[in-house]
Design a protein that fits this description.
Layout lengths: L19 E6 L3 H12 L5 E6 L2 H10 L5 E5 L8 H10 L4 E6 L7 H6 L4 E4 L5 H15 L10 H9 L3 H8 L10
Parallel strand pairs: 1-2, 1-3, 3-4, 4-5
Helix pairs in contact: 2-3
Amino acid sequence: MGSNLDSKGSAEPELRAAPFTIMLITADDGLERRVSAVLATCSKPSRVVRANPIEAALAQLQDDSGIDAVILDRHTSGWVCAETCGAIARAVRGGVTIGLIGENVVLPMREALASRLDGTYYHAQVDGHLLRRLRALAARRRQPAVVDAPAKRSDRHRILTDAKPADFERAHQSTWARTPTP
């Protein structure tokens, strides 16, 4: 699975005084335990807020602007459609939203783009590396934008997507249509 989450080449900016907060939208207790265990190994303070069902998550996102990232299990309550993913992504004001899918799922590119998620990963890919990347991107998005000169057309696209040209090359080599090996 690919995404535009990349924090190489820069020191991790400070989020704010509060802990890094991840909202986990899932009905799976095991996923919550795994995310909490990975965050417990990090040296920076963090917390997991679990929300289920999706309506409760949307309501909580409307009331709480302190969510830095949302991890949405796309298998919660059956299958979470692209429209619902988009509503969640819009509700996370300035944060990062990723989706998790099962290893036997092949997500069509149209569905992935329509979901408005920052990335889609397999459940097994939730690890310290992914959570560090989420933290770095959330911190970068919360920083005030600096505008000193009009960007060239080619730069505007990169600014809007937080992607680098190499990311687009890697996307062609991604695992969108491959079945992961155990």
